[in-house]
Every structure is written in C-alpha cells, then in structure tokens.
Amino acid sequence: MSTPSRHALPVSIRALSKHYGTVKAVDDASLNIEAGELMTLLGPSGSGKTTLLMMIAGFSRPTQGSIRIGAEEIVHLPPHKRDIGMVFQNYALFPHMNVAGNIAYPLRIRGLGAAEREARVKRALDLVQLVGYGERRIDQLSGGQRQRIALARAIVFEPRILLMDEPLSALDKQLRETMQIEIRKLHDRLGMTTISVTHDQREALTMSNRIAVFSQGRLMQVATPDRLYARPESRFVAQFIGESHFLAVTPCARGLCYQGTDLKLAEPDKVAVVSPLLMLRPERLTLAPIGERATANDCNVFAGQVVERIFQGDSLLVTVRLGGGEMAHLRLQNRAGNAGFSPEAGTHVNVLLHRADAHIVSAEA
Q1: Range of lowest pLDDT (75-89, 280-294, 297-311)
Q2: How far from 190 is each of 85, 128, 182, CA to CA, in Å?
Q3: What is the dihedral of CA 311, 315, 319, 320, to 10 degrees?
Q4: Are both 49 and 102 inside the same structural domain?
C-alpha cells in the first residue's frame, strides 16, 4: 500500500444497515478502511455496495450503525460537512464551464481566493496529466479525459477521503483497462484514503489494496486481491472472483476425499468446513497421460475423459469428464513450442491439481 498522505484518515464502519421496509439493502456491515488505502466494494447489481457508498457520502441515511472518519462520527452530518471528494458514475461535469472552472468549483464554494484557486487547479491538472487543458470545453474532451477531470475536481480541495461510484463504467474496454492503471498510480502518488464501487472483478483486482465482496446486502469477505482470488471463503466469492468449478468432497479418515481418494490440501485445517467443495481454477489444472505419475508428485490426480477442446486464440479450453461425472475445465496456454499435453476429444487422461492450489470452500454463504 502507498504511504498515506498527511491528510489521509481511516474509515470505520460498524453494524451499518439500510432497510427499505422488509428489504435489507445493507445488512449489519462492519468494515475498517486504513488511512491511505484504496478499498473497493465489489458485488453484483443489488448487492448493497452502492448503498453503502451513498451512506458514507451522506446521500442516504442509515437505518442503524456508525460511520467514523478518523475519530469523528459522521452519520448525522450533511454531505457538504463531511469533507469528502466524490467521482460519480456519469462524472457530473458542468457543460457551461470550461475544464478549469469545473475543477475550481469546489474551491470557489469554499471561499478560496482566485490566486489559490488557480494554483490548485494547475496542480490538479498536472496530477491527472492534463496540463494545458484548462480552457477547453467539456464537450471537447474524450471519455478518458472527462474521467480525469472528474478526478481532478474531486481531489483539488484535498478531501479527507475520496469516493468513486463505478468511475470507469462509461468507458470502452481498452480505455477502461488503461484508466485502471492510471487511477492506481494516481492513488499511489496521493496516498489518499479511497473507497471505490464496481461490479467489474478485473477492475477491483487491478486497482485495490483490498476488496470487500458483497452479496444481497451482506459483507461476504474482505481480503487483498491475491488472497481473495487464491483463498476465497465461500462458493459465492470463488465464483464471483475469477472462473471456478467445484467438486463435492466428503470427510474420510485422514481428511477429505473425492471418489474414495484422499485429497492433498493447501490448508489441511479446512476439513472442518461446512458442506466442503474443492475449488478448481481452469488455469491451475494440468493434464497428463493415463499412467504417467512422474508429473503428479505432490498433486491430486483425477482420472477422466476429454469431452472437447476449444481453440480460444491465446489458450485452449479443454473440458474433461471426471469419474464422478463432474466436468473439469482446463485453460492451457497456446504458444509455439508448447510441450504440454493437449489431447483430442475422447482421450482418457489424468487431471492434476497441485497441493498448493487445492483449496476448500464452503457451499454455504
């Protein structure tokens, strides 16, 4: 994580709920966000992530719970007294103002003088790499440039925290991926406590120090991107973050088994998980011919038959029917000189999963 700026403060959310009649949009959420951290709230539509962001911003009043910025309780403060920068999904730029006027607006309503406004606008434009754009009209900007101006306006008055609501959703795929890196770099330079909302898993993995996953108003798991991807705690998180399939496994004398064979697990203590499932990530599986054990050292070995092999440009997607009838999907890199085993449909094979990648999740939330 980047070094927090001197203005950065932690955010503490405790037992926060928002109910609309019998509907629990956010249900008893508690979350600590460190000073200078970029935390992403991730989840499908209707999961509660945007409702939580709006409660932090002050645009929605919680049914119950606490929100603190540093040591200050802000639940009862109106939005304009929370000292929060906000980047909206549609940017909400003023079309009748030029770029400099848009960026200077929050400074003007705070009563800063013209010289100070000009200096801060120039510094903000430099931070978002748009020096010299101050006199341009908003309709002269590309989507990526408008997004940068919205960011500049949100940070120009040095807020205590920065909130971003689906900040890249209006951009095309290529520009969105470029801006993910740019926002991460900007955050690292500023060291500002930042909370972002998205439904895009790759965006969350690329930009965040940590990710909080929501489902149906409930906070499911909070972890770093690599931990969340490699060690999800439930089937929902494993399916929502990346591509996963699962094998139902059963307790046995020495731990957990699949089709009567003991499993070698990365975390042996996971045998106590309720309704255990073995997570299979396509890129973590490999293939070997039947009878070849040399490559299976410290691996779980599942016998099966290739159902289909699909060319996808940079990779081959191979589907194997395992002994229990479940389908295992493997993604094999397609490159020149690839010595990997890539059999045709109908071939009997072994599917290998290394112990380090053998992770158990719960079928229940």
Answers
A1: 280-294
A2: 13, 11, 12
A3: 130
A4: yes
**Does a structural domain hold residue 275?**
yes
Both tokens of residue 22? Answer: 């019998």
DSSP string, 168-236: TTTS-HHHHHHHHHHHHHHHHHH--EEEEEES-HHHHHHH-SEEEEEETTEEEEEE-HHHHHHS-SBHH
Residue 323 domain boundaries: 243-362
Contacts of 126 (CB under 8 A, 6+ apart): none
Q: What is the pTM of this model?
A: 0.88
Is 2 part of any domain?
Answer: no
Domain co-membership, 180 together with 317: no
Mean pLDDT, the chain, rounded, equals 90
Residue 247, pLDDT above cutoff 60 = yes
Which residues are CB-neighbours of 173 under 8 A, at least 6 positions away?
Answer: none
Cα→Cα distances 348→186, 198, 266, Å: 51, 42, 27
For residue 69, the model assigns a pLDDT of 96
Last-in-domain residue among 193, 210, 236: 236
65 and 29 co-located in one domain? yes
Read off the pLDDT of residues 275-289 as tens digits, 9 standing for 90 and up: 899 999 999 999 888
